[in-house]
Design brief:
7 helices
Length: about 180
């Protein structure tokens, strides 16, 4: 049940990322003033909430990862561990920034998330297309799919979606800073 909820959250974040990307393209390449106004309003809603939203998403991700490995006893493969190494510090960084009321964490968050994107993409490709994984351990195969919802949402897909969403939210934060100066 919890895995299904995480998969639904992933789908919702995929829709958010798609809408954000399309909105950016419409705003960037069209001269529609009304569309530009509506899109700016939507961006302005998420921008001041970057840390809170990213903290919530990364915390759910960490708890979901621990739930899958400790409660469901799904073993983490080598690529899963690389993704965890990059995800687990994010709620700590974001939580401390919220507690200390520091706004300057976007660089750190983007750096960790950007490193996670290629790892997640490669891991997803390994799982879905059976690419060779010469560096993967024999204990837990990186190509085995232990979780698959809706035909394509696997653990690496969830991880990729989280990394891209955190990057998008942090970039919206940069947008606010550049607008202010």
């Amino acid at each position: 049940m919890i895995v299904k909820i995480l998969a639904i959250e992933t789908l919702l974040l995929n829709v958010f990322l798609l809408a954000l990307g399309l909105s950016y393209l419409v705003k960037r390449f069209t001269g529609f003033e009304e569309a530009d106004k509506r899109i700016s309003e939507a961006f302005d809603f998420f921008t001041p909430r970057f840390r809170e939203l990213a903290f919530l998403l990364t915390s759910v991700s960490v708890l979901g990862s621990l739930y899958m490995s400790e409660i469901l006893e799904i073993p983490a493969c080598e690529f899963c561990w690389y993704q965890r190494i990059l995800i687990f510090p994010l709620p700590v960084i974001l939580g401390v920034s919220l507690f200390m009321d520091k706004d300057d964490v976007a660089d750190y968050v983007i750096s960790l998330a950007a490193l996670g994107v290629p790892v997640s993409v490669y891991h997803y490709l390994v799982q879905m297309s059976q690419l060779s994984t010469g560096s993967c351990s024999t204990a837990v195969s990186c190509s085995s799919v232990q979780v698959q919802e809706f035909g394509f949402v696997t653990i690496p897909w969830m991880s990729l979606t989280l990394f891209l969403t955190v990057i998008a939210l942090a970039l919206l934060r940069y947008r606010k800073q550049s607008k202010a100066s």
